[in-house]
Design brief:
mainly beta, 6% helix, 282 residues, 4-stranded antiparallel beta sheet
């Protein structure tokens, strides 16, 4: 097959179907179930890295400059009496940067530097993940410095790494939207004793002034499994264009390939945004 006859990634035309060459068996992650979530996390308390209690006590106003999901923890459990279904427990760690507005010793209103804190949010969903529990053994990269754990073998014995084939949790999350930030008096509980045996002392202390944020979060939660699929293939996916590189010799040549950013000078209007006009009567 010549270069001109090569099928490239993109939409397939009717004449391309005749160029199918083989059926290929691939090992891929198949999505067995997924759901989308639109969560409004209301008045979540921010735990700051530094001690900012004095700032909170004297603040006239607080605002969030930035918010980012920095970690997602998840685990799954079988749903009793419902074969193939799993409870997926997801916990999001959201980093926020807050700026405080307060009066200094001279009575002037000043802004603090951004203070970093974290918000935790948990949720549980039920998804179908199918059945099947087998052990999978695969070879390990020889350059891997982590010692191989296998019974009765020495380093370099050719042992394989073991894993199970339980459903894999995947969470896709958009950047959070900060809807509100304020200072609120929060009643906090005080305990004594260790984690296993502790009792409440003065059930509520405070009220304490704390920073709370309301955050909008969009996410998609999936359960996938590694499976073998038979798919049609045209050929190997050869690159169909040369790389464009920037060098010290031709920076202006690279600049010439960039289109003029008209949208930066003439921002799009409301009717240019999909769905914006649908809410005109709200």
């Amino acid at each position: 097959m010549g270069v001109k006859d090569q099928v490239v990634p993109g939409l397939i035309g009717g004449e391309d179907i005749c160029k199918l060459r083989e059926a290929v068996c691939v090992h891929v992650e198949k999505v067995y179930d997924n759901c989308r979530e639109k969560d409004c996390i209301e008045d979540a308390v921010v735990d700051f890295v530094d001690n900012v209690q004095d700032l909170i006590q004297n603040a006239v106003k607080v605002k969030t400059k930035d918010a980012e999901v920095v970690a997602v923890l998840a685990d799954l459990e079988d749903v009793p009496f419902k074969r193939g279904f799993f409870t997926v427990n997801v916990r999001y760690k959201i980093r926020v940067a807050c700026e405080f507005c307060y009066k200094d010793v001279t009575g002037n209103i000043v802004n603090s530097s951004p203070k970093i804190g974290y918000v935790w949010f948990s949720k549980t969903v039920i998804l179908f993940g199918s059945e099947g529990k087998v052990k999978i053994f695969k070879s390990v990269d020889p350059s891997n410095t982590v010692p191989l754990q296998c019974e009765g073998c020495n380093d370099g014995c050719g042992g394989l790494v073991e894993q199970d084939n339980l459903p894999i949790i995947k969470v896709e999350v958009a950047e959070p939207l900060v809807l509100n930030t304020r200072i609120k008096r929060v009643h906090e509980k005080r305990y004594c004793g260790n984690d296993e045996d502790r009792s409440e002392v003065n059930a509520f202390i405070g009220p304490q002034r704390r920073v709370v944020v309301t955050i909008g979060l969009f996410s998609i939660i999936k359960l996938v499994r590694l499976v073998q699929l038979l798919i049609p293939a045209f050929n190997f996916c050869y690159p169909n264009k040369d790389c464009v590189t920037s060098t010290d010799e031709n920076p202006c040549d690279i600049f010439d390939t960039i289109e003029f950013p008209l949208d930066q000078f003439f921002p799009p209007q409301k009717f240019d945004f999909p769905g914006a006009e649908d809410n005109r009567h709200c």
